[in-house]
Write a structure and sequence with these properties.
There is one protein chain. With about 120 residues, the chain is mainly beta. Helices cover about 5% and strands about 40% of the residues. It contains one helix and eleven strands; from the N terminus they run E-E-E-E-E-E-E-E-H-E-E-E. It has one helix at about 85-95, and strands at about 5-10, 15-20, 25-30, 35-40, 55, 60, 70, 75-80, 100-105, 105-110, 110-115. The strands form three sheets. It has a four-stranded antiparallel β-sheet, with no helix packed on it. A four-stranded antiparallel β-sheet has the order 5-6-7-8, with no helix packed on it. It is elongated. Bound molecules: FE2/S2 (inorganic) cluster. FE2/S2 (inorganic) cluster (FES) binds next to loops. FE2/S2 (inorganic) cluster binds near residues 48 and 66.
């Protein structure tokens, strides 16, 4: 694994989200409850941006498009296209369930680094 220097930690206060390009892939950085998470910026379901997705009290990122939900820590799928009824089931059947890619994060000397 290589660690890439991404941005200054001060750019990610609590609740702020940043999308960065890392080797051609958009990655969403989120500071949530003091922890910085790095996840794929596009939903594995049908590619909607996750930047404005709601975070549940138990740490799941909910896609704003069809409300699939993923663990911020592991990318595990908690819900797969559950909404809207009917349309959600059809789209869910066309696109099999995929975890959200997550990336390890560490901070050093005030800089955020992502492992890829
Ligand atoms: S694009 Fe995210 S749930 Fe469909």
């Amino acid at each position: 694994m290589k660690w890439l220097d991404i941005l200054d930690e001060s750019r990610l206060p609590e609740g702020v989200r940043e999308v960065v390009e890392v080797e051609g892939a958009p990655i969403l950085l989120i500071r949530y409850q003091g922890q910085i998470y790095a996840v794929a910026a596009r939903c594995p379901h049908l590619g909607a941006s996750l930047k404005n997705g709601r975070i549940t009290d138990d740490g799941f990122l909910v896609c704003p498009r069809h409300r699939s939900a993923f663990s911020l820590q592991t990318g595990e799928v908690a819900e797969w296209s559950p909404w809207p009824p009917g349309v959600g089931r059809v789209l869910g059947a066309l696109r099999r369930e995929h975890a959200l890619p997550v990336y390890p994060v560490r901070t050093e000397n005030g800089r955020v680094r992502i492992g890829i």
